[in-house]
Amino acid sequence: MRIIPVLDLKGGEVVRAAKGQRDQYRPIVTPLSASPDVIAVADGLRTLYPFPTFYIADLDAIEGRGPNSAALARLQAMAQPPQLWVDAGFANAERLAGALAEPSISPVLGTESQQDDTLLRRFRDHPDLILSLDFFSDGFRGPASIPDEPELWPRRVIVMTLAKVGAAAGPDFERLGEIRAKAGDREIIAAGGVRNEADIRALSSLGVAAALVATSLHDGTLTPEQLASFDR
Description:
24% strand
């Protein structure tokens, strides 16, 4: 069971997400870092565990503003550069192909950014592509065909339940189970609501391969000892 820390970027800083209400996201305050600077927060997270991968939600790019390219470049230049799973609102073939060409980046194709399934059909067989099935409080956001056609999915699929993010409400086990049941041999990654070790164990029992986590790392409800035990 892999734990992948989340860095939500807005205005070049790490912000704290809350239930997908992005207008309310503010620079993160965490005991792991003295500031919301992206490298300071990434280094702080690595004091808990030597995470090899980070998930990046580039909120400015997702919302149609300029991407946080400088912050990504700084992460790529770290002494031990992480693999970056990056959702930057990819909505055209040129940007997506460019991201797929970078060895340290696995681009995340978020359904909320798609008008149709054209990009998914074109790039689904690329080994570095990750699909994010995006669920907001009002339900699925994206082309209606994608959740019902698992043959379109790449080998890694995030189930992103934004209403659960930062809410300490627990993962969306029912939805994860439904998607796991039709995913075949694809890896399912849970996102949103992970509170503690019990949630991680329950996700693992459900057949979930990894979890995107932020709040429980910063709040200390997932400890270094527990994080190390998940890899055993």
